[in-house]
Amino acid sequence: MADEKNINENSTNQTDVTETPAVSNDQGVIAPPVAAGKKSFGQRYAFPMILFGLCIILAVFLLVNNNKDKNDTLTDKGAAADFTYNDIDGNPFTMSEQNGKVRLVYFFYSNCPDVCPPTTFMMSQVQNMLKDEGKFGDKVEFVSITIDPERDTPEALKKFFDKFNADYNGWKILRGDEKETAELARKYQLLVSKDEEGNFGHMNLIVLVDKKGRMRDFISPQANNPSDTSPEQLYDEIKSLM
Questions:
Q1: Predicted model pTM
Q2: For residue 22, what is the DSSP state?
Q3: Which residues contact residue 153 at a Cβ distance below 8 angstroms, ignoring those fewer than 6 apart?
Q4: Span 45-240: which CATH code?
């Protein structure tokens, strides 16, 4: 009777568990089954790793740039790549045809959740300083290029830039092919990335181009770090190249 009682208690305490059959490889080593639909490590962490890499590159760039003598910051950094894109009104804009003006070139997208809006606001502050002197559009031009042309339609871009009171006479908002734009950014020594879910990553730097079409500085705005370039400092750099 005691043995029968123990058997009944053990049976009561056991829980039904459906085990997935073990899987053996060619060497006979048993491996646990992989859950259906489970993403690999690379799929799950590819975009965060890309963003981390961009942050490391940007940090190294800023460290090197901040350690330079201030007199060396506007040295020639190579030719600004030429291109032709349409603005939000459908008019073609060719970079080389704007030689004779100092330009700021900024790669952005309007759905950016962090750095693009405050960087664009800073540029609008510099725009107003230049307008007060009658220099904006005539001597200086801003060139903002979306890296997300699918969502950044002309209507969406106008809505975004109207918030910052952009003067379209001197501030050119451009759209092109997405892949071509990512390649163009690389020609300006900037990296752009996009993951499988459509999330973008980019180096948040403004490229200062002189009247001859030469890149002279890669500017880290205060959106990246409060101690980085202020609107007043950016204004002074622009004036030094007029």
A1: 0.72
A2: P
A3: none
A4: 3.40.30.10
